[in-house]
């Protein structure tokens, strides 16, 4: 019996829910993984087996983590690839001038603020700012991205009026500061990265353990953001790939993909 489109979407949503949990970076056991993904344990186990077969997830001694294939595909995400290339030198220069700061580059995606590049520093011992991390609501990077977007709902813990004031200040200054509101031991400053058309496409942030470091960093972070924006504007448009002829195949029905297929009735 053919499976309905609704059931197919449910399978994919379940698989993505598991991978979202694994994207937190830890090796996770089945019970916790199923609970965090809000899936029945049997369903989580079946989907994990299929994801392991695809190479998207690795399994070791009953614990799971993202696989190399998922990492490779994530690294190829187009906005991240362009931003990483444009930010490599400015971030290195910012880091070399400011000790062990943690630097991150973030974009808005589906209502969340996601780290796509950066350089490790002292903060990573407390809160690893790795690529793929979803930043806590109300971060300085989120303020920068919100300042260029239509007004939305405030993050948890902020009233609409307070969030609107913070967004307006970030827009006026071209900088956003955050002192322990997201992670109590961390403070950060963020600035916008612009496309060639002047649209805010990302935010660069410097994060430190000592809040006294943050205010003096504003000018340096703004300068790094301007350099990344200039590099991004100079990047040539990707050339079209030549069409490659595929060898002729005999006609015939295509077998269903064996992975990520649900159980058959």
TrEMBL record:
SUPFAM superfamilies, A to Z: GAF domain-like, Winged helix' DNA-binding domain
Keywords linked to the UniProt accession: DNA-binding, Transcription, Transcription regulation
Signal peptide extent: none
Region of interest called Disordered, as start-end residue ranges on this chain: 233-265
Gene3D superfamilies: 3.30.450.40, Winged helix-like DNA-binding domain superfamily/Winged helix DNA-binding domain (1.10.10.10)
Residue ranges of the TM segments: none
InterPro entries xref list: GAF-like_dom_sf, HTH_MetabolicPath_Reg, Tscrpt_reg_IclR_C, Tscrpt_reg_IclR_N, WH-like_DNA-bd_sf, WH_DNA-bd_sf
Pfam families named in the record: HTH_IclR
Start and end residues of each IclR-ED domain: 69-234
Span of domain HTH iclR-type: 9-68
Entry-linked PANTHER family: HELIX-TURN-HELIX TRANSCRIPTIONAL REGULATOR, ICLR FAMILY (PTHR30136), HTH-TYPE TRANSCRIPTIONAL REGULATOR RV1719 (PTHR30136:SF35)
Name this polypeptide is given: Helix-turn-helix domain-containing protein
